[in-house]
Amino acid sequence: MTKLSVNINKLATLRNSRGGNMPNLITSAKDIESFGGQGITIHPRPDERHIKYQDARELKDVVSTEFNIEGNPIPKFVDLVLEVKPTQVTLVPDAEDAITSNAGWDTIKHKDFLVEVIDTFKKNGIRTSIFVDPNVEMVKGAAETGTDRIELYTESYALNFANGEKEKGIKPFVEAAKMANKLNLGINAGHDLNLQNIKFFKENIPDLLEVSIGHALICESIYLGLDNVVNMYLHRLK
Ligand SMILES: CC(=O)[C@@H](O)[C@H](O)COP(=O)(O)O
Ligand SMILES: NCC(=O)COP(=O)(O)O
């Protein structure tokens, strides 16, 4: 079974745009779980433009499914994760000014760093995952870091799928996943997955353990919820 972990970064972006506490992340996380979501993902960035470090602390007390914290393991991120102790930490090599994640780790070049930081998290009972491009050499490098899982960076798949080239898009992911299976690495995936492209991805990736989905899921929730809410307003305005 593939678990769905809902990334709530975008809810925090919306909340922060007005100050105040709407939408409320704690209520939203609980609701997502009550609707069947099997995990909550957050990706606090150094500028805290969406998820704030304090959100991570508060969510820890209410998330009863899997809590996944993603981010670049700079010292303050490492301290936060060690304090919060989520189920899983996903290491992402994103630059401070990145609009969103845009590359996986070079697991060969950064092997020593990754070995050290993964060891720290694992000693604290936190499952580790590292964000990688669908590249067999990077998967082999990931296995050497001691990580429990990899997260396949799916932007290229999503782009190819949207361009009508799903077979071309999925191919490197199938190869990377087969290598991960061979090396006993668990497989997660994420970035730009959506209601259109998720089924084909799931059907083709052997032993896909978890997907984390945020941007599209929140947009789709707006598209699919607008009809209902507009009509609720109209009803009250009668
Ligand atoms: C690692 C990954 O792909 C996601 O965490 C994605 O980067 C979401 O982050 P933003 O919501 O900041 O775009
Ligand atoms: N790890 C990927 C994630 O959490 C969500 O990415 P996206 O769906 O917001 O692109």
Low-confidence sequence ranges: none
- Which class in CATH terms? Alpha Beta
Alpha-carbon Rg, integer? 18 Å
Strand order in the largest sheet: 1-2-3-4-5-6-7-8
Number of domains: 1
Name given to the CATH homologous superfamily: Aldolase class I
User: Gap between N and C termini, in Å?
Assistant: 47 Å
InterPro entries: Aldolase_TIM (IPR013785), PyrdxlP_synth_PdxJ (IPR004569), Pyridoxine-5'_phos_synth (IPR036130)
Subcellular location: Cytoplasm
Enzyme class: transferase
Keywords: Cytoplasm, Pyridoxine biosynthesis, Transferase
Task: Report on this structure.
The chain is of the alpha/beta class. It has a single domain, classed as Aldolase class I (TIM Barrel, Alpha-Beta Barrel), CATH 3.20.20. Helix content is 47%, strand content 17%. It contains 10 helices and 8 strands. It has helices at 9-16, 25-34, 53-60, 75-84, 111-123, 136-143, 155-162, 166-182, 198-204, 215-236; strands spanning 3-7, 39-42, 66-71, 88-91, 127-132, 149-153, 186-190, 208-213. It has an 8-stranded parallel barrel with strand order 1-2-3-4-5-6-7-8, surrounded by 5 helices. The N and C termini lie far apart (47 Å). The relative contact order is 0.12. The model has no long low-confidence stretch (mean pLDDT 97). The protein binds 1-deoxy-D-xylulose-5-phosphate and ligand LD2JLWAY. 1-deoxy-D-xylulose-5-phosphate binds next to loops.
